[in-house]
Amino acid sequence: MLSPETTASLRSRTKAHYDRxxxxxxxxxxxxxxxxxxxxxxxxxxxxxxxxxxxxVGCGACRVxxxxxxxxxxxxxxxxxxxxxLRDARRRHDPGPLVNGDNLQLPFRDGCADLVISNGVIxxxxxxxxxxxELARMVKPGGTLVVSVYDRRSWYYYTFRxxxxxxxxxxxxxxxxxxxxxxxxxxHVGVNVLLPLATRRTLFLPVETSWNLxxxxxxxxxxxxxxxxxxxxxxxxxxxxxxxRRREAxxxxxxxxxxxxxxx
Length: 264
Prior knowledge:
Layout: H1 4-20, H2 28-37, H3 39-45, E1 53-57, H4 63-71, E2 75-80, H5 83-92, E3 98-100, E4 113-119, H6 128-137, E5 139-150, H7 155-181, H8 184-199, H9 207-218, H10 228-237, E6 241-248, E7 253-259
Parallel strand pairs: 1-2, 1-4, 2-3, 4-5
Antiparallel strand pairs: 5-7, 6-7
């Protein structure tokens, strides 16, 4: 277990990282793919009441809020560690309530939300298990938690470990300016070739969005990878019932859909 000082340092570095490279991966084609083909989209489309409360923890570009608004019209609370990311989301559109918060200690009461979503976030924290349990704490009886983490058995584990180590090493030597004229152009071209194939839609990422995504994928201060077995163990600890699991994002993510029973 990491010391409180180490945990605080890593959280500070992660906040600074996303303040500098705010996550803006919110193109319409991406939203539609998530709504129609992802576990989180299934859960969002299943919301029955406008009075439902949705928590998007690690909201990034506030994609969940936009999807909820176009389906049920329920309220979404958007939570992120990075103020830069929240400001960027507000600049792009009106996502609704924004909260600057840490997913290791969320400022909400137990059992407050009908649906809690954390898509590709808790693996960027110093203590993913504690983050998971904090998400689970907010799920009301009968409510749903959808959580996605980087899959330990995916191709991306090896990409981050080896190609990512090269990128991080180069960055230490040549800085962002050097990366922009060496490694990043290959990433930018690759992403713009592969995304249309994955979404089956015409899609082109702006350079700024691609640049921030590049840093999200390769230079985050802390990154961990997990298995479904590990996630289901945490779910058992939180007394949540697994309703489904799926590998998503070209098998980059391991996603669970969990429910809190009406009587714990």
